[in-house]
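#struct-pred
JK: can someone run the complex with iron/sulfur cluster? inputs below
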Amino acid sequence: MATEHYDVVIIGSGAGGGTLAWKLAQSGKRILLLERGGYLPRERDNWSTEAVFLKSKYTTDETWVDARGKEFTPEQNYYVGGNTKFYGAALFRLRPEDFGVITHHGGISPAWPLGYDDFEPWYAQAEQLYVVHGAAKEDPTDGPRSSDFPFPAVQHEPRIQRLSDDLEKLGLNPSHLPIGVMLDQDERGNAVHTSKCIRCDRVDGFPCLVDGKADAQTVCVDPALAHPNLELVTHARVERLETDASGRQVTAVVATLGDGTETRFSGDVVVVSCGALNSSLLLLRSANDKHPNGLANGSDQVGRNYMRHNNVALMALSIDPNPTRFQKTLALNDWYLKGEDFDYPWGGIQMLGKADGEQLRGKAPHFLAWGAKLVPDSPLEMLAHHSVDFWLSSEDLPHSDNRLTVEKDGTVKLALVETNPEGLKQMRRKFESMMSELGMHDGLHERSLYLHEAMDIAATAHQAGTARFGTDPASSVLDTDCKAHELDNLYVVDSSFFPSIGAVNPTLTIIANALRVGQHIGDRLN
Ligand SMILES: Cc1cc2nc3c(=O)[nH]c(=O)nc-3n(C[C@H](O)[C@H](O)[C@H](O)COP(=O)(O)OP(=O)(O)OC[C@H]3O[C@@H](n4cnc5c(N)ncnc54)[C@H](O)[C@@H]3O)c2cc1C
Ligand code: SF4
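RT: done, structure tokens with the ligand placed:
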């Protein structure tokens, strides 16, 4: 069967692949974007807690196993735009220190082969492209910027403004959370009538029914498809990559289409961007005589060093009601580089989307028992009306045994041991001790339904590592252009390349890197 040939074949349309497609579409080169999913259906369930959180309507139903062989379903969403259809769009830059060596309580976070300065111009472009709203100079850990945030910070609603004021009174430096939404605000922060985003309470974890969120589909794939040289094939699951006899060139991208047929594509350049876990899976499944341990895996590093953050979703109960709708507006990074009375970093805190009664109902016995002590006779809706919701995140460290492998029978295995838990524990304890000074009842409760059971191995929402970049082919998979050391035309542009993950959300760095690598591939094609 004839193979259709392109200048570039990109596999995966999420933050990495979608952004790269946008960048390269402007080059006039013939680009093919292959995506295993279809367009996410636009329907009322997009904004239904029951559909999204309780029934996991949109997540994959595939089954992987953990190191002990216990089955689980990874939290992954296969659609045009990838996981960004569901993300909270908190778009932070890594801190300059994250690019160097950081000593944590649990070990070393290694240096990147490039520094913050190398990424800065791409961060600035990424913020523009993904409509990031924020305020410079508020967050003490922010790196230097060549330009201000392209859009003004999303204003706090009154209860969150009070929280910000109370944190400042405690000598801390809360900042406006950088977030990618198409929100045009009036002087009070409300959405103006022409704003795509309506500033609702579905801001985190839900796909946006009105396309107001800057996800990879809305800001990259859809606009890029206006270029006739970009072609998108949906429901095209790439099974393996084949190489020439030398093993240096990918010659075929073999995909199963929606009707079950197998089709082959080829490109001068082939870019894998399936998300860190699925990209390593594709490379491992593409083993051949020249690459017996998996494509580009002479170093035995493919699939290893999987990282995902140590984090926890917590709910506090405000003494006064918290009628906030768009709650994801505040971040606190005072302990990002060093905890209090601790020689090592703790991490960062940011607001989560607002809990509703339905989300609490998923864990009703726990919440009712806890809430009844504080607010007697409260139904879940009343508790939710008082909830203030936080996300605490600290760095986990690369560990070579935290690893994705494919068993002989094809089963996908993900092994995970905890690294560096102490910083998160201490930050949680400290934050818990501050509740009364922040106008909350004592105590914090885990909101484990967010991210479908928090720290369970199935929580793969933030994923990085598995094919790290570096200058030494013996210890890294990709070079500093994110090209595989062992192949001449194979690149990876999702979060696989991260040597360490930092403690902020990873996606702005994926986007910035895709723009950086896109520039390199464009130059190479010319
Ligand atoms: C609920 C939730 C909230 C989040 N909130 C935030 C946040 O606030 N801030 C933040 O920075 N990050 C957040 N994230 C993480 C963010 O979504 C990811 O970091 C980001 O989407 C990763 O981009 P990617 O390109 O690496 O992978 P993805 O976005 O996962 O894209 C990979 C794409 O490849 C496709 N694919 C996979 N395998 C194949 C194959 N074999 N063939 C063809 N196509 C394939 C997939 O369908 C998908 O479209 C959140 C994630 C979730 C789930
Ligand atoms: S807050 Fe805005 S971007 Fe988020 S779901 Fe609502 S309308 Fe969409």
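RT: quick notes.
Residues 322 and 342 are 33 Å apart (CA to CA).
The mean pLDDT is 94.
JK: thanks, will look after standup
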